[in-house]
Amino acid sequence: MDSSKTDILIIGGGPAGMMTGITAAQFWPHKEVTVLRPETDAVIPCGIPYIFGTLGGTEEDMAGRAPLLAAGGKLVHGFVQSVDRDRRQAQLQDGRSITWERLVLATGGENFIPPIPGTDLQGVFTIRKDYDYLDQLFSQVIPDVHRLAIIGGGFIGVEFADEIRKRGIEVHIVEMLPHLMQAAFDLDACEAVEKQLRNHGVHIHTGARVEALLAGPDGQRVGQVQISGQEPLAVDAVLIAIGVRPNVALAKDMGLTLSRSGGVWVDAFQRSREDPAIFAVGDCAHKQDYFTRKANHAMIASQAAAEGRIAGMNLYGLRELRYNAGSVSIYASEIDGLAFGVAGLTQAQASAEGFPILVGEARMPDHHPAAMPDTTEVYCRLIFSANTLQLLGAQVLGGATTGELLNTMGLAIQMHATAPDLASMQFGSQPRLTPSLHPMVAATGDALRRHYAHQHPCLPGDSHASQ
After folding, report:
1. What stretches in the chain show pLDDT beneath 50?
2. What DSSP assignment string belongs to 131-191?
C-alpha cells in the first residue's frame, strides 16, 4: 500500500480548499501543504452559469492551480474513503494513505433535490462542480433543448436563465415565493430583476409550487412540469436550482459534531469541536449571521474563500486579529447591463429580526457629468440601526461599479461603521471612473436627514428653515 506524509492535508479543491492551501503555504512556509481533490479538472463555481452563454464552453471556466503551486503547495488527485482521527491518517479509495498533522475539510456542498415525483427522469439535471458533467451538459444535453424550466428563482436560477436564453432556448423560471430573489433582496430590487429578465424573453412563474415532473410520450424523459393549480407546463428539460446542502458524509464518519443547520460545527478560527487539529471551511462548515449569530446559509465562493484564509492563518497558532466574526453575506450578479447586489441585512430581514431601522436611498449617475460614455444610474439603499446608526445592510442596482460598491459596503459593515462615519467619508472622484458624490455618502445623507428631521424639525418661523 502506498503511504505518504504531509504536514497539512486539505480535502477538497474548491475556493475554500484552494484558498486554505495558498494561505497556509504563505504563512507556514516550513510546512508541507497538500490539497487533495477528486477532480482532475476543476471549474470556477461562480462561472458555471456563464459556460452556457457568455463563455461558450466548459474549458473557458477552468480553475487555475498556479497560485497554489507558486505559494509552495502541491495538488494531488484522489478520493478520501475514510479518516482515522487517532492515527491522523486519510485512507484513499485507491488504496493509498496520507498521514497528516493538520486536516482541513473543504468537501463543499450537495445540490438539494426536492421530494417530488419525477426528479429521476431523463432531462432533469442540477448544476454540479464537475468538469466532465458540465461539459456533457454543454455539448450534448443543452443543444437539444428548446424549452427549459428552472425550478428555483435564486441567484443560480436567475443567472442560468439569463445565460441559457442567449442560445435561443425558451426559458421558464418557477419560484415558490412571490418574487424571484426574495430571500436575498427587498422587493424593489426583486422587481427590477424580474423586469430585466422579462424584457429578454424569460418567462417567470412566481408563487408557484411544483407538484411533480411528468414524463413525456416515451415514459422516460421529462415532458411536463405540474404546477399546483395550473395546467402542466410542457418542457424538454428541467434544471433544479433550489439550493445546496453541506456535504458532511466524511465529517459524520469521523464523528465530528454537526450544527442544526447541517454543517460541521466550527469556532471562530474554523476549528472543529472535537479536535483543534481538524478544521472545516466552505460549504461544509457551519455559518452564523454577522449580526444575529443565527445559522446563515451563505454558500458562496467569496465566503468560502474568506473561511479558507482564516483557517490557513490559524493552523498552528491562533491569530486573534484574523477570525470569523460571522457571515456578512455579500452577493452580486448582473443581467445584460443591470447589476444588482446586497451586503448584510435587507430591510425586510432587519425588521423581521426586530431591529429598529433607518433607511437611506440615493439615485445618481455613476460617472460625472452624466453625459460621459457608459454612464449608468446607480440606486443605493442603506439600512442602519435607528438606535446606534450602525450600518446593517446595503443594496445596489447599477452598472459595472456595483460589485466594488458592495465590497466597500461590506467592509463598512465589518468595521462597524455608523452613519456619521460614512457621511464624512473621504473619497476620490474622477469623471470617467466615479460619480462626483459617492452613492454610499448620498444614501447616508438621506438617512441622516430622515433621522434628524424627527429630532430637529424646522418649524414655521424658524430662522434655520430657509437655510
Report:
1. 463-467
2. HHHHHHIIIIIGGG-SEEEEE--SHHHHHHHHHHGGGT-EEEEE-SSSSTTTTTS-HHHHH
352 CB neighbour count, 10 Å cutoff: 10
Distances (CA, A) of 366 to 106, 153, 340, 369, 438: 39, 28, 14, 9, 9
- The answer, yes or no, to whether the previous bond of 67 is cis (omega within 30 of 0) is no
Residue-level pLDDT at 139: 86
Measured distance CA(136)–CA(116) in Å, rounded: 25
Phi, psi (degrees; rounded to nearest 5) at 157: -60, -45
Residue 459: its pLDDT value, please? 58
Nearest to 379 by CA among 359, 393, 399: 399
pTM of the model: 0.89
Residue 445: the pLDDT is 95
∠ CA(136), CA(140), CA(141), 5° rounding?
90
Q: How far apart are CA 161 and CA 206, in angstroms?
A: 14
Render pLDDT for 398-426 as a digit per residue (tens, 0 to 9). 998 899 999 999 999 999 999 999 999 99
Helix, strand, coil tally for the chain in percent (to 5): 30, 25, 45
Contacts of 255 (CB under 8 A, 6+ apart): 85, 274
pLDDT of the residue at 138: 86
> What's the CA gap between 314 and 303, in Å, rounded?
17
Q: Of 207, 185, 434, whose CA–CA distance to 333 is shortest? A: 185
DSSP structure string for 228-254: TTSPPEE-SEEEE-S-EEE--HHHHHT
Residue 387 burial (C-beta neighbours within 10 Å; 0-12, 13-18, 19+): exposed
Residue type, 10: I
